[in-house]
Design goal:
Length: 278
Amino acid sequence: MAALTYPAIDPVAVRIGPFALRWYGIAYLLGFVAAGLIVRWLVRRWELNLSDDDLLTIVLAAVIGVLIGGRLGYVVFYGGDYFWRNPARILAIWDGGMSLHGGLAGILVAGAIVAASMRVPFLTITDLGAVGAPVGLFLGRLANFVNGELWGRTTTVPWGIVFPGAGPLPRHPSQLYEALLEGVGIFVVVLWLAMRRPNPPRGVILGTLLTLYGVFRIFVEFVRQPDVQIGTHGFFAGWLTMGMILSAPLVLAGVALLWWSLKRGLPEVGRPESGAAG
């Protein structure tokens, strides 16, 4: 059976004595830096009254929200009973184990706190973050591929890859599918919305992100190997995966937000609204 050769990149980028800098950590760092630069550019383009100190606060809040939410999401939804038996391992983020759904929830909570403290409409903050988020999604999925984790189901397609630790059969490189769909695909769409003149109504960009991420994630779940430590060998009702279950509400929330933003006629991003915080 023909299969592509896994590149077998060392997950550790730099070793200095006991110190090891992993590509996964570099991906997170570059993702936050890139998102911060994109947000700064949008603040100028949308003529928002936010200083560089405000932007730094937003980025730091996003980092905390993603790390806490992503880890707790993994522990709750994907950890099985492992963390009940080993609670000290909950803090061992360096060993891997982050949930994108949990990270999204964490960053939304952080955005709400920042918006309230700065007296900026919540949907303005989240629309800003929604443009930068796909960059982090793209880099994170590439890091998953480098780590040889979260691979796909067995396949006969000519681009199937034999992953170390996943058995002798070729598998879908589902990490790369997600990098292209969740990263590149969503970024192109939200960037187009962000650059439109006039600016889109508040909530449209976030609604688009939620909808597209949920749809793309559900699509890839059909070829991604489920997490065997939960459900019945990773499945619920015989075919549903945890990723599908968690993504379906995102699609519903995204569509509802798009409908609400457009129907209510919310102000454009960057335009002040008297007496309300969108």
